[in-house]
Amino acid sequence: MSVKDAIAARHSVRAFAKEPLTTEQIHELLEAGRNAPSSLNSQPWRFKVVTDPADLAWFGTSQASRKQAWLGSVPAIIVCCADLEHYVKDSQSAAFFYRDNKIIDGEPMDGIDAYVAREAAKEEAAKFGACAMNVALAVSFMMLRATEMGLGTCWIGMFDEANIKAKLALPAGWRVVNLLAVGRPDEPVVYPRKRKSLEEILLK
Ligand SMILES: Cc1cc2nc3c(=O)[nH]c(=O)nc-3n(C[C@H](O)[C@H](O)[C@H](O)COP(=O)(O)O)c2cc1C
């Protein structure tokens, strides 16, 4: 499948076959995310894969997902997180690596110390925004790879972060960006995708 075909075929799937994902399938998805680009190669994405049926059932309740009941029976949920604790340090060491090895050279690297200091001084909300942007890229890669593998995904943005962090004992420095439901699609209907036209999104 070409990337073009994967982009065309991907859509949000909310009905899945009752068929667990294999370890290899999960590994392939995580590999796709791991190879995404990130700001200063900071790679702030972190993942928790949930496949235990009792835990999955909990995700369909109001405690986890504002009662999106269908989530309770998906084969797997990947909890996609941003590691705010290590983001600045990881950005810094990658930036210095790029500078010292002249991979990125010249003006972008001249003020790198000041840039990193500014990032470090940012409030949590700003740091979260920066990290979440990178996590979203990794998740996009995972969604397209899933399509290529014949799997379906749905990005879930409505969830209770505090409850999920407590339930899964996620580290304090992590923030949850989204849940990614994954499984083999079992859909009665394929909805036509509605998209804005190019005229609506392109400034001429
Ligand atoms: C940031 C974000 C949050 C979303 N949250 C949810 C959600 O909580 N529940 C859900 O069923 N779908 C959710 N979706 C899926 C969107 O509804 C879906 O991507 C959109 O309607 C376009 O349809 P398509 O993905 O099939 O192309 C979310 C998607 C994004 C990108």
UniProtKB/TrEMBL annotation:
Keyword Oxidoreductase: yes
An annotated Gene Ontology molecular function: oxidoreductase activity
Coiled-coil segments on the chain, per record: none
Keyword Repeat: no
Keywords per UniProt: Oxidoreductase
Matching Gene3D superfamilies: NADH Oxidase (3.40.109.10)
InterPro entries hit by this protein: Nitroreductase (IPR029479), Nitroreductase-like (IPR000415)
One Pfam family linked to the record: Nitroreductase
Nitroreductase domain: residues covered: 7-184
Signal peptide per UniProt: none
Highest rank taxon of the organism: Bacteria
Family: Belongs to the nitroreductase family.
PANTHER family referenced in this protein's UniProt entry, alphabetically: NAD(P)H NITROREDUCTASE YDGI-RELATED, NADH DEHYDROGENASE_NAD(P)H NITROREDUCTASE XCC3605-RELATED
Protein name: Nitroreductase domain-containing protein
Organism: Solidesulfovibrio carbinolicus
Taxonomy of the source species: Bacteria, Pseudomonadati, Thermodesulfobacteriota, Desulfovibrionia, Desulfovibrionales
